Amino acid sequence: MVSAGRARLFTFERVAHARSSIVQLTEEFDLIDDRPEPRTVVFASIVAGEIARRHARRAVGRLILCAAPPVLTDLRLALYSWQLDVPEIDEVEQDFARVNGFAIRDRLFAMGLLPDRPAPAQGTSEPERTSEPEVQLQ
Questions:
Q1: Which pLDDT score is estimated for 132?
Q2: In the chain, where are the structural domains located?
Q3: Who contacts 88 (Cβ-Cβ below 8 Å, separation ≥6)?
Q4: What's the sign of the alpha-carbon dihedral 80, 115, 25, 92?
Q5: Taking residues 2-13, what's their average pLDDT?
Q6: Are 60 and 86 in contact (CB under 8 A)?
Q7: CB 40 within 8 A of CB 67
Q8: pTM given for the model
Q9: What is the rounded CA–CA span in Å between residue 75 and residue 109?
Q10: Phi, psi at residue 79, to the nearest 5°?
Q11: Do the Cβ atoms of 120 and 126 come closer than 8 Å?
Q12: What integer pLDDT is reported at residue 8 of this predicted model?
């Protein structure tokens, strides 16, 4: 999730419970560009470098980029320069940088970008939704 001055990286995995499973998003980093007038090209390059470093440590099979259209263009170009070997890349032209992880997960489900969400088994429910802490890297 990238905006002109903020980038958040989430990983997702299916977590099994006794009677059901859920897709869990885990925030890996929250990068804030605190310059008075962030330059999206420079910031996109920093974000792309961070994604490339994390991909080198733990290869991913799929990348979902969410950003406003002008930022998405800058990010796409910056990622291209890193020549990442990611089998599947999806793009969403929406800025989710200020949206909590549960709402992001729900929106990505609604768009068909996350694996099908199984219905909880009878008599169970998903864990209670809470806001997530922000971690700033500078």
A1: 40
A2: 6-114
A3: 61, 62, 63
A4: positive
A5: 80
A6: yes
A7: no
A8: 0.72
A9: 23
A10: -65, -35
A11: yes
A12: 84
Q: What's the token pair of residue 24?
A: 């869990």
- φ, ψ of residue 118 to 5 degrees: the values are -70, 150
**Structure tokens of 18?**
């006794």
Q: Nearest-5° angle of CA 94, CA 23, CA 17?
A: 160
- Please spell the DSSP secondary structure of 83-133, one letter per residue: T---SEEEEE-S--TTS-HHHHHHHHHHTT-S---PPPPTT--PPPP----
Is the CA virtual torsion 55, 105, 77, 85 positive or negative? positive
- Cβ-based neighbours of 125, under 8 Å, separated by 6 or more: none
| Partners of 65 in beta bridges | 91
> CATH fold of 6-114, please?
Nucleotidyltransferase; domain 5 (3.30.420)
